[in-house]
Write a structure and sequence with these properties.
153 residues, 30% strand
Amino acid sequence: MNTPSTITRRALITAGGVTVVGAGALALAACTPSGASTSGSAGGGAGAAPSAPKPASGTEVAKLSDIPVGGTASAKIAGAPVLLAQPTAGTVVCFSAICTHQGCVVAAAAKEFDCPCHGSKFEAATGNVLHGPAVTALDKIAVTVSGNSVVTA
């Protein structure tokens, strides 16, 4: 027996359909880079991520001792997130931490860089894609070692 406070299965399924459609639209919007359009116009899509920061030469990025040999680290250049790796002692490479897939911030992992949004993985020494959905390597940023500091070139 249905009372006014009881929801029928048909009412729940009908309301659930509206909710699922709304949630789908929200999920799609959440995957769209900031400022991009979801209607297919300019601004979205693979490879539309912002470019690497262009700092002044000689800007300190990190201390060499903060980047493990064979490992990775995160830092910022002019407020922009970057990723560092030291493949061999004294050799440091730097990449933009902005994923080339949809613009999420990629994280430093033990021996690679991982995007938490959609699962892309990048090789730490080269920034190349190990596993997509990203198809483009991370943007490289020129750095050099000066004493115990990693600085922009």
